[in-house]
């Protein structure tokens, strides 16, 4: 997890879910405008997707310029032969009638998704089946949707290694199976359909 503690281009080593130091690193890859402690916390306390200590802090893209390069964080030290799930949240206390001003665009591996971040504590963006580049990196880009004084914010992220499972379908003596009978499935994904046919 990450909770707004990243400054400049410092390199952080992340802990896994057992709170053990992992080989995964996190650092700013492209500059953000600033950091802030104006993230929206949940009510009741700590009832959001991430704990309040993460929701309350952010790094953000915020300026009057119409042409701003997105901020980016880089996850490094990843296994190039594995796939990952990246879960992101943006949240702040700002409420604006123009919801585009409080919409953030997140991009991972060329795919983009939008999130309304105003007073958000539970809605997240999820990217599945993400492969690191040849150097073991995954870059997460954070951009503001509204060009003039819009906000692009990142409060926290979660990286999940997607394990793979082998599924093999076999027919009995008096039948057959139509379809892909040997499949490699990522955790959280569905296999392709097969049909059992009686002889």
Q: Name the average pLDDT.
A: 88
Strand order of the largest sheet: 1-2-5-10-7-8
Query: Gap between N and C termini, in Å?
Result: 53 Å
Tell me about the biggest sheet? 6 strands, antiparallel
Compute the gyration radius: what is it? 20 Å
Low-confidence sequence ranges: none
Basic shape: elongated
Percent of sequence in beta strands: over 45%
| Number of contiguous helices | 1
Helix content class = under 10%
Structural class of the secondary elements? mainly beta
Beta-strand segment tally = 16
Order of helices and strands: EEEHEEEEEEEEEEEEE
Task: Give a short overview.
With 199 residues, the protein is mainly β. The chain is built from 1 helix and 16 strands.
Indicate the topology.
Blueprint: E1 11-15, E2 21-30, E3 34-36, H1 52-55, E4 58-62, E5 71-76, E6 83-89, E7 103-108, E8 111-116, E9 125-130, E10 138-144, E11 151-154, E12 156-162, E13 164-168, E14 175-178, E15 182-186, E16 195-198
Antiparallel strand pairs: 1-2, 2-5, 3-4, 4-11, 5-10, 6-9, 6-12, 7-8, 7-10, 13-15, 14-16
Structure, described:
The chain is mostly beta strands and 199 residues long. 2% of the residues lie in helices and 45% in strands. It has one helix spanning 52-55, and strands spanning 11-15, 21-30, 34-36, 58-62, 71-76, 83-89, 103-108, 111-116, 125-130, 138-144, 151-154, 156-162, 164-168, 175-178, 182-186, 195-198. The strands form five sheets. A six-stranded antiparallel β-sheet has the order 1-2-5-10-7-8, with no helix packed on it. A three-stranded antiparallel β-sheet has the order 3-4-11, with no helix packed on it. It is elongated. The termini are far apart.
């Amino acid at each position: 997890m990450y909770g707004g503690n990243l400054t400049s281009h410092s390199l952080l080593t992340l802990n896994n879910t057992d709170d053990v130091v992992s080989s995964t690193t996190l650092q700013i890859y492209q500059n953000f405008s600033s950091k802030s402690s104006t993230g929206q916390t949940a009510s009741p306390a700590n009832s959001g997707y991430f704990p309040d200590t993460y929701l309350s802090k952010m790094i953000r893209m915020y300026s009057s310029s119409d042409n701003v390069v997105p901020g980016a964080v880089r996850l490094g030290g990843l296994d190039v032969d594995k796939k990952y799930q990246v879960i992101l949240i943006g949240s702040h206390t700002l409420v604006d009638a123009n919801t585009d001003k409080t919409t953030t665009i997140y991009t991972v591996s060329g795919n983009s998704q939008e999130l309304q971040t105003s007073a958000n504590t539970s809605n997240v963006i999820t990217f599945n089946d993400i492969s690191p580049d040849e150097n073991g990196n995954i870059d997460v880009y954070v951009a503001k949707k509204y060009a003039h004084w819009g906000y692009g914010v990142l409060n926290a992220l979660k990286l999940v290694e997607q394990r793979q499972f082998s599924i093999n379908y076999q027919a009995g003596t008096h039948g057959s199976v139509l379809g892909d009978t040997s499949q490699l499935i990522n955790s959280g994904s569905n296999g392709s359909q097969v049909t059992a046919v009686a002889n």
